[in-house]
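Continuing the series of single-chain predictions for the mutant panel. This is the parent chain; the variants come on the following pages.
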Amino acid sequence: MDVRLGSASVGAHVRDAACYVCWAFARAYAPAVMAPYVPVMAPGLLTLALLDREVNCRRAACAAFQVPFPIALGHRYPWP
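Parent structure:
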């Protein structure tokens, strides 16, 4: 989501908040509960972490992807 309003763009806050929600859900719920949603959320987070133009969104997506998803997939350590 990105909406132009004059010389500014609105949408980075929405993407940043969405990353925080993904991170918070994965931290709050058991890995067995989150496991079905990991394949759905991981590609979007990875795309956002690599291609977003806002550095805050890239950082939030990286944090959301790195911390909880290996736990939800049953890995003890982050992705190799």
